[in-house]
Write a structure and sequence with these properties.
about 15% strand, nine-stranded mixed β-sheet, alpha+beta, L-fuculose-1-phosphate Aldolase
Length: about 220
């Protein structure tokens, strides 16, 4: 694939950020071994972690990139086995980065619920109550279809007996949303473990109010 120097530098930078994010999922305990995967969109290309390679062994020259049609255009290593799921997200949303993990608390919750209730206002960052996508074999078109249904009007969901998938405007946002989702699942499990009590939940109206405030959070300009 012929590239200009500027394109080559852009892809190299994106790959470096992708690998750093993938390694962070391991160091923060969101994945074990080679489980989970990370991708980022650069123009019409999707860079994605390779299949079966420990993240600490991925090098700058190991770049793996596919077109939105799934055809591999850069690299010799095989793309992640969850490529279909990532591509489905890019085709149907405005995602620029996707993070998929097997986080412990989120995976546990995925086996118990059909929807994670609004136990904390940060749920508004992902669009509200977190749906659980129906189970299907990993890497399958069926799983990708279930994920897209669960992501309707959301930026993240749980995968039944599997883990999480979250997207964002960039890798930092996708990762932070992933970490927040895992944290909310941990909070829900802790609250539900207290016998004789049920967690209080936030209303749809309150989530909408928080979502409006979050639109200006951390940006320059007057407070909102």
């Amino acid at each position: 694939m012929p590239m200009r120097d500027g394109q080559r530098d852009q892809l190299a930078q994106a790959w470096s950020e992708l690998v750093a994010t993938a390694r962070r999922t391991v160091s923060d305990g969101l994945v074990v071994g080679t489980s989970g995967n990370v991708s980022v969109r650069v123009g019409g290309l999707v860079l994605i972690t390779p299949s079966g390679i420990p993240y600490d062994r991925i090098r700058p020259g190991d770049t793996v990139a596919v077109g939105l049609d799934g055809e591999q255009v850069i690299g010799e290593l095989r793309p992640s086995s969850e490529l279909l799921m990532h591509l489905a997200v890019y085709r149907t949303t405005d995602a620029r980065a996707v993070v998929h993990t097997h986080a412990v608390h989120a995976t546990a919750v995925s086996t118990l619920l059909y929807e994670l209730p609004a136990i904390h206002y940060i749920a508004a960052e992902l669009g509200g109550k977190i749906r659980v996508a129906d189970y299907a074999t990993y890497g399958s078109e069926e799983l990708a279809a279930h994920v897209i249904r669960a992501l309707r009007d959301r930026t993240g969901c749980l995968l039944r007996n599997h883990g999480t998938i979250v997207y964002g405007d960039d890798l930092d946002q996708a990762y932070e949303r992933t970490a927040q989702l895992e944290w909310m699942c941990q909070v829900w499990l802790a609250a539900r473990s207290v016998q004789g009590f049920s967690p209080s939940l936030l209303s749809k109206r309150e989530l909408a109010r928080v979502a409006e405030k979050l639109r200006g959070y951390g940006r320059s300009g007057p407070p909102v």
